[in-house]
Amino acid sequence: MTTTAERVIAVNTAAWDYWRWHATQPGEWVTGYLASRGLRGTVAGQAPAGWARLVPTLRRRGFTDTELLDAGLALEAKNGGVGDAFRDRLVLPIRDASDRIIGFTARRNPATDVDPDAPPKYLNTTSTPAYDKSRALYGLDADAAARIARGGIPVLVEGALDAEAVRRAGNDLVPLGLCGTAITAGHLQQLRDIDPAAVGRLINATDADTAGQGAICRLWNLLTTDEAATVRAAVLEPGTDPADLVQAGQRSQLRGVLVDDARPIVQAAIDATLARYDLEHVEGSLAALRHIAGALKGATPAVLAQATGHLTKRLADTTEHDVVVTEIISAATSATEDA
Fold first, then answer.
1. Strands 45-47 and 263-264: what pairing?
2. Tens digit of each residue's pLDDT (9 = 90 or more) over 101-137
3. Which of 89, 67, 92, 91 is nearest to 9 (CA)?
């Protein structure tokens, strides 16, 4: 029999109770770790080390191995044995807008970070009857949904610890973590279902590395024309994320980075695209310009103006302002003719 979403939520709730109990026992390490990251007060669980700690506990509570496997809480060994999927990790629950625990995200014990054979730093629940990673966002619980409905500002970050850091940057900010997956149309639809204008208030604060640049372009392609005119992107230094700023004692600066210094997403998308081209030569600059102009078809006049000004600055060494304007106007005219 297929495990239902309700049963997955039930087993997740039991697992969370068990991990929360472990986080309060002598010798636990999650409290000290969170304090060292500037995240004191974050409610976390601790999955104990060992192959079979959670599994036998939940068996005694009436859950079957099939239910544990279907919930992503257990793994089956080659010899047929069933053991814990989350071992020696700080665990945080992923809740839905009804506050049900649909999955988990977990960070390995930092004591193992120096081990070249250490397991992946972060482990997230696999797809289950209750958890769809293409729609679920860490932090989008009942309270977050209510704040978004009242006009709160969604802030999109890479993972759970970044989201916990953003919580400390202002009550008007609603942090949402992607937890190891790319932004999807389903994620954005979750926000629109709460408030049709929510995505238009979004601030993207994903990492400024190559993957983060790709995320900016994916987000840009998923926005409506109106949303593209108002969504902003935080300016993070490469190799720095919101959790790093909080850990460094720069909590007050974090809000400035996220809100005060945020720029139109079209500028961030342009920079991410230009990074893939050789801008030292005219040919590379023109190829980049035409690529970007094509992506701007249908954009609002305000976005086209932002793009034109930003491209003129970025391509000043190789491309005349009039050439930039011509390409952008050509794209806009083409979009009008196609409509």
1. unpaired
2. 999 999 999 999 999 989 999 999 999 999 999 999 9
3. 67
Cβ–Cβ under 8 Å, residues 129 and 9: no
Q: Taken in order 213, 215, 218, 220, is the CA torsion positive or negative?
A: negative
Q: What CATH number was assigned to the domain covering residues 5-124?
A: 3.90.980.10
The answer to pTM > 0.85 is: yes
Give CA–CA dist 282/103, Å, rounded: 50
Architecture of domain 142-265: 3-Layer(aba) Sandwich (3.40)
Q: So where are the chain's domains?
A: 5-124, 142-265, 277-338
Contact of 124 with 104, CB cutoff 8 Å: yes
Instruction: Output the CA angle 274-279-284, nearest 5 degrees.
Output: 90
Cα–Cα distance, 155 to 191 (Å, whole number): 11
Residue pLDDT, tens place only, 156-181: 999 999 999 999 998 899 999 998 88
β-bridge mates for residue 173, sequence order: 153
Long-range CB contacts for residues 73-79, cutoff 8 Å, separation at least 24? 73/11, 73/12, 73/15
Amino acid at 204: N
Alpha helices in the chain (DSSP H): 5-22, 30-36, 54-60, 65-70, 142-149, 160-166, 185-194, 210-222, 225-228, 242-247, 251-255, 265-274, 282-295, 301-314, 321-338
Using a 10 angstrom Cβ sphere, with 0-12 exposed, 13-18 middle and 19 or more buried, the burial of residue 336 is exposed
Q: Are 155 and 205 in contact (CB under 8 A)?
A: yes
